[in-house]
Amino acid sequence: MEPALAMASAVKSKRTSRGRQKIRIKKIENPERRAVTFSKRRKGLFVMAAELCAHTGAHAAVIVFSPSGRPYAFSYPSVDEVLGRFLVGQFRDRAGLEGMQELVQMRALLLGEDDERAAEPHRGAVLEELQRGVEEMEKLRRLVLAKADVVG
């Protein structure tokens, strides 16, 4: 073995640190260290969200509040669009619109009614549910903007 290779292998086997270690998940007591850790991890979280959107074309929104209550957000394409899509999906799942439409169709078949007349009483309920969703989304948007104004 050449002397340079022998020396390189000897250097590799001699470690000065323990390498990357697992850390225990617990609250950091020192406020300065906690603030630095929050800042670094927040940036890392936003970078990962941005990469996810860039690589896959996903739409994402990440809203994080610091321990002092300051809001930070990342979104692609916009917070309003992502939250709107999320809330519409939530209401569709909660209201069971697909299932409701199937029930309306089955009821119409059993009663011999046409779909338009059978669906009419349910449209009001669906519209009310969607209106409540829009109102909740608007409240959330105002809250986030108000927090951003307080900080900014």
Automatic annotation (TrEMBL):
Keywords: DNA-binding, Nucleus, Transcription, Transcription regulation
Keyword GTP-binding found: no
A GO molecular-function descriptor: RNA polymerase II cis-regulatory region sequence-specific DNA binding
GO CC terms, sorted: nucleus
SMART domains cross-referenced by the UniProt entry: MADS
Record-annotated membrane-spanning stretches: none
Localization (cell): Nucleus
One Pfam entry name: SRF-TF
DNA-binding as UniProt keyword: yes
Source domain of life: Eukaryota
Residue ranges of every copy of the MADS-box domain listed in the record: 18-78
PANTHER family according to UniProt: MADS BOX PROTEIN, OS11G0229900 PROTEIN
Protein name stated in the entry: MADS-box domain-containing protein
Organism, scientific name: Musa balbisiana (Banana)
